[in-house]
Specification:
Number of helices: 7
Distance between the termini: 27 Å
Radius of gyration: 17 Å
Helix content: 25-40%
Order of helices and strands: EHEHHEHEHEHEHE
Largest sheet: 7 strands, parallel
Low-confidence stretches: none
Strand order of the largest sheet: 3-2-1-4-5-6-7
Number of strands: 7
Structural class: alpha/beta
Strand content: 15-25%
Length: about 240
């Protein structure tokens, strides 16, 4: 994935936070980017949203309204990229109820919504869109979290979010096992603790630093095989 070569990235969930930061980073590197968002009207009102970024991108940013929880939206996106070679497919979208959300207090409906958005829908989207990823040097990635590591969970907290990201990690490993021998790198990504709406204002990393690190890591992981849980510094994370 050489820089400045017109490589193509599809970023699902790029209207704000890390998704928007990744869109900005890949455009800075000379890539073409397809970025999805759920609410075009809300984005258009933001001075730093995708629409504003698109005006600076010289035609290299394609903005698509899509909700990964809606099968029809995923199918439309699949049709849109048919016949195009993606160098990177990265599902970034995710939600959280925060550190205090607990299994004994979360409603069944909210638990299901978080699991749907953070685990089931990303894998359904990856299943649908993976055929468009370039072989042998393409990359399929899903945004997880260090909190999704079962081995490293010694402090508790973030119970619902942790559970959803651990589920995502397991499903990504299952996807890799079913696609053993496929010439594509499969990455489960921990972006670090970042100052986003989810990470909060006291997080040590800014969005630009995390996005730059993730893009560098993805370039280095190109050509790999199997599922790898890895952070923005290119350090592997315990499952």
């Amino acid at each position: 994935m050489a820089e400045q070569d017109g490589s193509l990235a599809l970023l699902l969930g790029a209207s704000r936070g890390l998704g928007l930061g990744l869109a900005r980073e890949y455009l800075r590197r000379g890539w073409r980017v397809i970025a999805t968002l759920r609410d075009e009207a809300a984005d258009a009102e933001r001075p730093d949203g995708l629409a504003a970024l698109g005006r600076e991108a010289g035609g290299r940013l394609e903005i698509v309204r899509a909700d990964i929880n809606e099968p029809a939206d995923v199918a439309a996106l699949q049709a849109r990229v048919s016949g195009r070679a993606l160098d990177l497919l990265f599902v970034v979208a995710g939600i959280s109820d925060g550190a205090a959300a607990r299994i004994d207090t979360v409603s069944t409906e909210r638990f299901g919504e978080i699991m749907l958005t953070n685990a089931l829908s990303p894998l359904r989207a990856i299943e649908a869109l993976a055929p468009a990823v370039r072989r042998p040097h393409g990359v399929i990635a899903a945004m997880s979290s260090g909190l999704g590591s079962v081995a490293n969970n010694t402090t508790g907290g973030w119970e619902v979010y942790r559970a959803s990201k651990a589920a995502l990690d397991t499903l990504m490993r299952s996807f890799a096992a079913r696609h053993e021998g496929d010439e594509v790198a499969i990455l489960v990504v921990a972006p670090g603790w970042v100052r986003t709406d989810m990470g909060g204002p006291t997080a040590p990393l800014d969005i630009a630093t995390s996005a730059h690190g993730m893009a560098d890591m993805i370039a280095l992981r190109q050509g790999g095989r199997g599922a790898v849980f890895v952070d923005y510094r290119n350090q592997e994370v315990s499952w």
